[in-house]
Amino acid sequence: MSLPQESLLTALRLCASAPAAALELLQEPLWTARQQLCQALAATLASGDWLALLPILNHEQAAVRLHWLASLLVDAQKRQQGITLVSNPDVWPLLEQLAHSLPAVRLQAIAHDVCTCREQLLNVVGVNRELLLTERLLRWEHYLQPGTVLPVSHL
């Protein structure tokens, strides 16, 4: 494989150090989808339009893509704390952008909501994926408005 070391490390970390799963992630359709998510997230941070992520997330593999998004948000929280061991070292500039753009409490609220959304997609039979994702994206956009009261975290 002729990918940068950071990409290989990222794939291993996102796949819980399982080499076969990491190799599958690095294949063309999946790795390209992850790169598109990262690019779309960077554009979203610049524009503030979280609904622009809908075409990337609304896919048969939405749960996987939400897992990637959650890992990026958690990595940004780590960067805010000065931690350099992250799951996504291949997109370091994006992690820094997230860490500097979003306050810690808002990152935590969105990350928690991403995980909740992922669980609903995996466990609720017949859920309308597009509607659920649209509602969540609008909620995350609302979380970033000044004066918005965030949900109480039980972490």
UniProtKB/TrEMBL annotation:
Q: What Gene Ontology cellular-component terms does the record carry?
A: DNA polymerase III complex
- Pfam families, per the entry: DNApol3-delta_C, HolB_lid
Which residue intervals define the domain DNA polymerase III subunit delta' AAA+ ATPase lid in the entry? 2-27
Q: Which residues form the DNA polymerase III delta subunit C-terminal domain?
A: 30-142
Q: What's an example of a GO molecular-function annotation for this chain?
A: DNA-directed DNA polymerase activity
What is this enzyme's EC? 2.7.7.7
Biological process GO terms, please? Answer: DNA replication
Q: Give the UniProt keywords, A-Z.
A: Nucleotidyltransferase, Transferase
What is the name listed in the Swiss-Prot or TrEMBL entry for this protein?
DNA polymerase III subunit delta
